[in-house]
Amino acid sequence: MSTAENLPDGTISTRPSIIERPLLDRPLAGHEAHDPAVQRLRRRTFAIISHPDAGKTTLTEKLLLFGGSIDVAGAVRGRKTQKSATSDWMELEKQRGISVSSTALSFEFAGCQVNLLDTPGHHDFSEDTYRTLMAADAAVMVIDMAKGIETQTEKLFQVCHLRKIPIITFVNKVDRPGRVPFEILEEIERRFSLTPIPQNWPIGAGAEFGGIVDLHTDDIHLFQDRQSSRRSASKVLSWDDTELAESFRPELIESTQEEIDLVRTAGDEFDREKFMAGEQTPVFFGSALTNFGVEHFLHGFLKLCPPPSNQATLAHQGEIDDQNFSGFIFKIQANLDPRHRDRVAFVRVCSGRFQRDMEVSIARSGRKIRLARAMRIFGQERITIDEAFPGDIIGVICPGEFRLGDTLCEGPIVNYEGLPQFSPEFFAVLECADTSRRKQFDRGLAQLVEEGAIQMFYDAKATRREMILGAVGELQFDVVQFRLQSEYNAPSKLNWRSFKVARWVDIPKDSELTLPYAGKWVTDQFGYNAVLLQSEWDLKFLERENPGIVVHSIRRHDSETISPK
Ligand code: G4P
User: Domain holding 65: CATH number?
Assistant: First the structure.
């Protein structure tokens, strides 16, 4: 059974009944509106991960379209390609046609508040994406049907895996000639050791793609309108409907039925526990560009995506009280608005109720601070908010005391594990090109390191502490130089270093490291031991020559041992 709904543009959308109504799809009683335990259940907070061009922006836009946040498709794309109102450092985004900044987009749908964490599209800013994933409760992995799993998807998958968040897969561009669905499923299983559980099945591919079969209800959603800028209608049929025979070749209907039989007999059953443990991924097929399957996906996604946990899943020290506010800073960004020249810290709320003007403690230092201004940021727009609940992302003005990864809390101290640090792949020394601007250069660089725009390493052995900067993407250096110049009026000169890898090392006390010829022993900005190496071969040498050490490619912060600098 399906229910039909009249859409504002006059078309009919047919909602599949397989999709359970999300929790709390009812008007909230007065007292519930401010209750974190109730509001938590309404939240769905997730990020979309994909290789560039797989369709992340298009899907985001379509989700907002179906969520009613934008009227006509094009708004997000416009943001990506035109970027009219921007702060000066975002000039760089315009010049390069890339998206560096990322925030959160929110919309209400079917009784849920959906928080979509927006991540930069360019892989050079993947460090930012990695950190943003720390604030998500689930990830949507978009795969291009023709290209399958690509390198960036693989890297982002590893981060989701590290964070143990459930992954829902959207196989996009089914309207293009590409691989067959079974090939994609096999690839997901082989490359990620994830069991794919199809939720729907496409009828036809490429130009012939005309519908999907809901594998739970057996309803056939027939797409009728390829016009992509509005919510397009889908009609629901059953296998014996005459309209089905009129819409598809008999061989196509037959082969689709055979494929579905195979999926049902040979495939695994969906198991929520396995999904939550990152062992299974529900898979939806569709086409974001033509809207085919997007609404079906959105309903299915809301049912699958877990609400924020009442005991935050992140490791932490201290007791979480569901009524007390706690959250952590996963992003700091300066000069979002050139008129204010301020720094905004993005906080993921984990527990309790955030209220404007409330006093919170910074868990790292114990200092108390009043959060006078909090806002929701959508591109250049800032909307002041008075309250927020677990799962929400709020922007607070950064008074200069916040560090990336800081926990803010009300009541007894709770301290969430810090954000992981990922191995840079590009290294350089940045020199101040105008000695009269030295002070500004140093201040600017220190702030950019604090923001996480770049990582910093110090030579552990040299008496003069040479600072080597490291970044996962080369373009991060352009951003740093650009911002030093535009925000601090401090010109700089970049000298590349030939390192390619950083590895954090646990070294037994008082022992020395035997390094490959071109390796360097350093400490990072938090004081952790690390080595910079030129190749994988050097890495093997390091491990072979120093059997007592433990090498990490990702530094997970242990808040007890971090000595703030
Ligand atoms: P990204 O954010 O992951 O980088 O991908 P984006 O959404 O920008 O999509 C990349 C290209 O793929 C775009 O085309 C977009 O229109 C196209 N695309 C996205 N989803 C689908 C789909 O379901 N089917 C088809 N056929 N194409 C799709 P472009 O030519 O690069 O950009 P534009 O000129 O359309 O803006």
Answer: 3.40.50.300
